[in-house]
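Appendix B. Raw example, untouched.
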Amino acid sequence: MLADDRNHIRELALRRILKAREVKWSAATTTIATNNIRIFNLPAFDLCAMDYVDLIKWENMTEPPLTERFSDDMIAEAIVNPAII
């Protein structure tokens, strides 16, 4: 999503990544974040989705491993210039 041609999709990716970071560091965080263990659960797919961004429910997703090493500012810059990611 960060490299999508559509600017609004890149902005959506930024918001979702920042939200995942908030959840990771919140007081209500589960042992997944506190122990740095990533448990992968295959999400259910909506095969009737009209766009790839709608294939899964994003409410309980974690941050992609690719972006964990980037600062919030670096990810925000990727919205303007998707070639940096």
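End of appendix B.
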